[in-house]
Amino acid sequence: MSKQKARTPSNQLTGIYKSESIRDVAESLNITNLSDSVASALASDVEYRIHQVVEEAARFMRHARRTTLTTSDIDQALRVLNIEPLYGHFPHNPPTFRRALPFPQFPTAGTVYFVEDEEIDFDRVLREEKITLPKGVSWNAHWLAVEGVQPLIPENPPAIPKDVDVEMNGRSPGRPGSSTFPSADRPSSSSAGKKQPQQLVKQVLSRELQLYYTRLTTALLPTGTPDDAKRVAALVSLRNDAGLQALLPYLVRWVGEGVVNALKGGVQSESEAKTLGVLLDVIGAILDNNTLFVEPYLHQLLPPVLSTLLHSTLPPSHAAHLRTTASQILSHLLTQHSTTYPSLSPRIMKTLLLALISDGKSKGTREGAIRGLMGVGKEAIRKGLVEGGGAKVVGNELTMGETGSIVDSVMAAFQVLHPASSTPVPLDKNSQDDSDVVAQLRDTLGDFFARKLLHDGAWARGVITGSQEESP
Amino acid sequence: MSVPTPAVSTPAEGDSPAPSTAPPPADPSSNVAQGERLVLEYLRSRGFKTAEQAFLSSIEAGTEGKDKESAAPSSSNTVTSEELVKNIAVFASKPNKPAENALSESSSVVSELGTMGNPANIQNLIASISSLGAEEVLRLDPTDKQEGFKELEAWVDGSLDMYRPEFRPILFPIFCHFYLDLIQQGFKEAALRFFSEYSGSLAPVHNPTLHHLSALLLPTHVEKDELAQRFRNEKYTVRMSRSGVDLLVGWLTEGMGGEAPGSGEGFSGEKGKRGRLAVMRVVNNHLKFDVTASPSTSVSATSWEESTGLLSSLIPQSSGSSVGDAHTFNLSKGELKLGPAPISEELRAETERQLREHAMMDRDPAAQYDAYIRPATIPGVVSPTFSDLLPHPPSFRTVDVRREVEKVRDARKRIRLEPSALANAANPGQALAARARALPSVCAYTLHDVGEGVPCCSFSQDSSLMAAGFAESYIRLWSLKGEKLKGYRSDFQPSSIHNTASLRKVREKGGSTTRKLIGHSGPVYSVSFDPVGGSATPPRYLLSSSADATTRLWSLDTMTNVVAYRGHQNPVWDVQWSPMGIYFATASRDRTARLWSTDRTSALRVYAGHLSDVDCVRFHPNSLYLATGSSDRTARLWDVQRGSCVRVFIGHQGVVSTIAFSPDGRYLASAGEDLAINLWDLGSGKRIKKMTGHTASIYSLAFSGESSLLVSGSADWTVRCWDVKAAGGLPSKVKENGVNGVTTNGDTHSEGPSHRESESNNETTDLLSTFPTKRTPIINVQFTPRNLCLVAGPYLNPEIR
């Protein structure tokens, strides 16, 4: 409250105390026949006395270096005016005035305010309420100005550009030739001051980077626009351009949110699938860019990739492509970073195996897991499909003679494990040797995939032996 | 103005309302006496007391000095009925009849107006008719005041730009008197209407007074209220140029002279005339014109502040002779001894010896022992001698020497702040460097969780201690160096103390870096560390003043209250040590400031004269003088020993909340609730400049060591730096064009806030820098001896309240 400015005397200041109030008081004292003139004269007098007290109290307020009048000021004022103070009002808990419900029978009564008098149950207070002592007064010191320049520290308010303007106005007339002075004077403070409010969003981004970011994201998405050239250009830029490190956290977050949004929608439509594709491309591009230091953000990049990979229902037209891309990215990521980030591949493996083996997963998830394992490498396939019994689990879920992408992917995985021979020699059921292999095959891979491998003895052996070599 | 009176009556003649209701003049060829009687009767019946009185005096004047007033129609022996009608009209509207000739030579207007209506016989006559008159007055239509003020305001606003700032100040007293008149005559409703209608334009400048007056609602209030009585009994001084007075008188008599086209129509009617008459009554009875010879264009926009108001009681009446304005009073008090206080030769010699030793030890060729330069005397400033000083012990102590030595070191190591360098810096690079040289480093101490409030805070000169007085009646002391503050145990035998070692044994164990001093029974409004140790040693005593009307002395060795000084009857607002210790001064709500010595429990001197609370008190650096700032909107300078007022500084439009002396002893800065800081020249008592820019109360002021920079702390959560030496003034782009400049400035002061373009308008050009804080009103601003600025304030948590 700045007194000088805010308060303009108006007729509100006079005649606040109504003669009706006097009459009310009189009635409460059993004086019913108070004449109008007396009442209004008394009201005027009461108002004058109140003004007197308030004026006196304002002095105490001023000397207390406050700008709010408190009950203690009134108290002090009454004391020096030799009036008995009003007891029971403490500045510590200023009374809150509540508005009473309107009286329908007296529409003229106007609004009535009252002080709420809370009833306190001592038992409850003693039992429950912990009286906390206020933390005593403390101080801290900071530099408000160092040689005339206000440092930008949290203790100081952010510089207001207007202030600089004001100074400019204030100065320039008196000082010819120094028009550049105020701006040159604290450029850092003014520019930083403008950014301060946005600090939470973009801390150190230059304008150019911010612009680049918006351009990039708008070029990449939405996929509805047929502007593929732009998208490709954006990806190329992301793949090759240097100096984007500062943007990385924002891009990573953008990708993560994009994937989550796309997957949340169920990925039924083409466009969402396309979006996912683009986002995977972006991740790929980020990983491809040699100038970026991605490692700190890997833990943020993995969820989108794995989610895409293992999502149960991708649209059939794009499913294979998306899963393949995701697995490629995974493989790329692992080859690049598994050396510096040793716990990376075990973590990924664990996720994939869980998706492959555990019950109740959809085919899509299983397929994704298999493709992921392919991306991770030969050992992973062996561990997952053969030793972990992944093939068996998948096979059991399939009906005999069924084909589909999942079967293809398993077969492709076997291909990776051991290349199929160009001239397949089927296993001979009669041969003792071969029948052992067949039994083993059925044992480890289950009926479905054993049957698939029966026609190529060398391949089957390769798949099995590889596992045998590992198993001891 | 066009003088010949009969010509006036053209409007009056046009519809001649006044005479038409009057009894027709019976005998046109009657002699003067009869005509006069008729006029008197008429005037009496109309209730024109003043006019009547004026008329009577004019008759006197006419008979006494016929030669002088040869042209006055009232002195002509024969009048035709028509002429009589005209004359009546003139009288009705113009009671200062005798002056009408003199009005042409405006310089004598004032004296004429002043002397008028005082002769004893007229007084008797008035007394005899007063009972009748009072009734007449009551029957008066209160609207004449409304009308009059409206016309006056229209006239002032319509007057030439060059005169407007001059005329503006007269609106306020007339407004006040009209309001008081209406209240006193019982027209409460009319008074309220009048107030609400016309207070708006006056509010920006006179808000506190208006607010006070608005509370007066009954005739008894007017009789009891102090301010109202001052309005009634004292003359409100208004400074005006000669031509300004001419124009005003011209308008009052003729309803012409610069009013806006169309606005003068009311004056042709009865209503307008009566309104004008009401204005004139106030002008005659309650206004005093201080006519300056200078043309109005050369008067700066704010100069009216110094010479306008109920001045007569503010200026101390010395030896019976009444002195009209502050300037003459200040001149009459002669020269002041503003130079630095002398140092005894022994102390000086010892200090020099010590300095020499230090220089030897430090092996610092730069630190010459002769760096102990005797303070350069500024030409024109008289330095006091030993006999002028307050009595002090003749011998010096070790602490004195250490203080003096430290003073020299401080002076050498002080950061020089030269705001003047800013003005000379041409290119930005230089400017940056100059800025660093010109502006101080400010260290802010923010108090958290202060609860009820912290009215005061102070740092010791060696910056080792900070003390804050709280609304909860206690004082808290902090060691800024992180040392533990220990008192003494209370359970020791004095007989067991033999040396410092045994004394150290009875010190308290433990302790913390903060300490609560409890003793007061009301909010603590001021604390002051004793200055004896200077910046060399920590202070040993602390003074505090409180709402419980006591001042207390605390020993910082024992951390206990040593003495309570009682004498004031009311809250003590401020306490301040004299620059050399031993003595201190207090300022109280009981309208006095007092001088005390620490070894006596009763006051040595009482400085009485302020008309309202004494809000702050400061010692002049050489301890010869004491400055006080008061709620009566003045600051005064007192001779400490004689107890007499030697300077009065009038110009603030609000309570003077804080003051500060410049270390060189030549200037006084005062800050008021009018959000302005005024800089005064002590020698002449004149205002050097007015610095504005703060947007809330200013709580503290401090000069830098070289007296070149002023820092202010305020409730608007800012610390501002001001260039003391710069010319200042408002940054109007038309500054070079005097006429326009004055106009814009005048508007800033007289029109509502909505008329202002923005707050920045308000900042004078000598504002070097503004350092905002986070919700921290700055209650104390101080410079260390090495020119580091320390500020303190409580952080206001936005969640509370």
TrEMBL record, chain A:
Coiled-coil blocks: none
CDD domains for this protein: HFD_TAF6, TAF6C
Entry's Gene Ontology BP terms: chromatin organization; RNA polymerase II preinitiation complex assembly
Region (Disordered), start-end ranges: 154-198
Record's keyword annotation contains Nucleus: yes
Residue span(s) of domain TATA box binding protein associated factor (TAF) histone-like fold: 15-79
Family under the similarity heading: Belongs to the TAF6 family.
Protein name, as recorded: TBP-associated factor 6
Organism name: Cristinia sonorae
TrEMBL record, chain B:
Family matches, as Gene3D superfamilies: TFIID subunit TAF5, NTD2 domain, YVTN repeat-like/Quinoprotein amine dehydrogenase
Name used for this protein in its record: TFIID and SAGA subunit
PANTHER family per the UniProt record, alphabetical: CANNONBALL-RELATED (PTHR19879:SF1), TRANSCRIPTION INITIATION FACTOR TFIID (PTHR19879)
GO molecular function list: RNA polymerase II general transcription initiation factor activity
Locations listed in the record: Nucleus
Biased composition annotated in UniProt, kind: Basic and acidic residues: 748-759
Gene Ontology biological process terms in this record: transcription initiation at RNA polymerase II promoter
Entry-linked CDD domains: TAF5_NTD2, WD40
Domain TFIID subunit TAF5 NTD2: 141-254
GO (cellular component) term, any one: transcription factor TFIID complex
Organism in which the protein naturally occurs: Cristinia sonorae
Region of interest called Disordered, as start-end residue ranges on this chain: 1-34, 59-79, 735-766
WD repeat extents: 517-564, 565-606, 607-648, 649-690, 691-725
Swiss-Prot/TrEMBL keywords: Nucleus, Repeat, Transcription, Transcription regulation, WD repeat
Top-level taxon in the UniProt lineage: Eukaryota
